[in-house]
Every structure is written in structure tokens, then in C-alpha cells.
Task: inverse folding
């Protein structure tokens, strides 16, 4: 089955600086890679996603890059703000029509701390 | 608020009791998922439904766990004879006919 590794487990950055979280996946059939933000006591909230036919996607201060050959993808947050503090999860799946294991396989999460 | 509703949000139960969680997905989302999340870990897939059919179960879903989606709308997850190791957050998610999966706020279970 799919295996997703995520690094680092904890990331502390100064407010206004950039943060980068990296993930690798094992199953070359995976083609959908979402990122979720989870605040304490709440469910995961989708913040950005990318499909395997795209190398990069950006939404305001958040961007995701994908390297299919190396099987890794990264989340980039620029101009970090205190409200960015949360746990971030990467995930991989074969997508809606991928068949087999239909759900998402998650990394273990990164606790992002924004220092004022 | 994603529109996926879970009830109850918190449940404390004694070991050996049965508990049931309910999930109301986003209207017209035909796929519904259950995940389990323990502290410091990412969500782990338990099972999913397409309409009323349960199409896949994880090895994590022991025979004490049962999930239903009788009319292809809401779903229930029942845990029988709860054990302390069942303490976790149980997440429900739904998916339309595209890739995006939307999660609810979760149901916290504490077994004492």
C-alpha cells in the first residue's frame, strides 16, 4: 500500500518568514496530493491540493510543488502569520477514479509554530 | 464549516460499553469515509461507502466495529465492547464525484 513520509515533525519560524514542509510517497499510481490544516480539537481543513499532471499550484500565500519522478511534494507558506500556527498534513491517493484503496494516506503531520 | 456534520462531538464511555457515532455528509456527495486519528498521528482510513454500498474496509476495522449507510445519506459507526485502545477521534468525510475530500469536525471518544 501507499506510504507517506512527512518532514519535519515540528517547524518554528519567525512571523513573516517562509515555511516549507516536505513529503514523499511510495506508490507511483498516486495522482492526487492534498494538504490539510488542523487546529486543536477540529477536523482537517483542505488548504490546497495538486494533481499529478501539474507541477506547481499557488493560492495567495500558499503554494505546492510536485516532483513525480522523485515522488515528493512540498508545501510552501510565505509571509507567515500567527494564524498559520497549526498542524499540517500531507496526503496521497489514487484520486476518485483510481480504484483500489480509495481513501487518503496521510503523513504524520508537521506542527508549525509561528513565533511573534 | 465544511458541511460534514458529526454527532456527538465528544463521548466518554466505560470500557465494555457500546457507542455509536453519526455522520451527515454534504448533500449529494456519494462517497462517505470514516477515519480514526490518535494524538500526534495523521488520520487513518477505516472504511468507505459509495452511496449505500460499503466498498472497502481497513484492517484497522476489527469485528467490534460496524458501519452503515442505509439510505446512501447519513452513516453510523458503532463500536461494540469498547476498549481503552479505541480512544481516538473518529472523523467522517465526504466526497463528490471529484478528488476533493471534505472532513467533519470529528467525534472524540474517551474510554475509561
Result:
Amino acid at each position: 500500500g501507499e506510504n507517506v513520509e512527512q518532514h519535519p515533525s515540528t517547524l518554528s519560524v519567525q512571523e513573516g518568514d517562509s515555511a516549507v514542509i516536505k513529503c514523499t510517497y511510495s506508490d507511483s499510481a498516486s495522482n492526487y496530493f492534498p494538504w490539510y490544516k488542523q487546529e486543536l480539537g477540529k477536523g482537517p481543513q483542505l488548504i490546497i491540493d495538486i494533481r499529478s499532471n501539474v507541477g506547481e499550484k499557488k493560492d495567495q500565500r500558499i503554494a505546492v510543488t510536485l516532483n513525480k519522478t522523485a515522488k515528493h511534494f512540498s508545501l510552501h507558506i510565505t509571509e507567515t502569520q500567527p494564524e498559520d500556527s497549526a498542524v499540517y498534513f500531507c496526503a496521497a491517493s489514487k484520486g476518485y477514479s483510481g480504484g483500489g484503496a480509495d481513501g487518503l494516506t496521510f503523513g504524520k503531520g508537521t506542527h508549525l509554530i509561528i513565533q511573534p | 464549516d465544511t458541511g460534514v456534520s458529526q454527532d456527538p462531538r465528544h463521548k466518554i464511555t466505560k470500557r465494555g460499553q457500546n457507542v455509536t457515532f453519526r455522520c451527515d455528509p454534504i448533500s449529494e456527495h456519494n462517497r462517505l469515509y470514516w477515519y480514526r486519528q490518535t494524538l500526534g498521528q495523521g488520520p487513518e482510513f477505516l472504511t468507505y461507502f459509495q452511496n449505500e454500498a460499503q466498498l472497502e474496509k481497513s484492517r484497522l476495522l476489527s469485528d467490534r466495529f460496524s458501519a452503515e449507510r442505509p439510505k446512501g445519506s447519513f452513516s453510523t459507526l458503532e463500536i461494540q465492547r469498547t476498549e481503552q485502545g479505541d480512544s481516538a477521534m473518529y472523523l467522517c468525510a465526504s466526497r463528490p464525484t471529484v478528488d476533493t475530500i471534505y472532513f467533519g469536525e470529528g467525534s472524540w471518544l474517551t474510554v475509561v
Notes: Chain A touches chain B through 27 residues (CB under 8 Å). DSSP finds no helices and eleven strands in chain A.
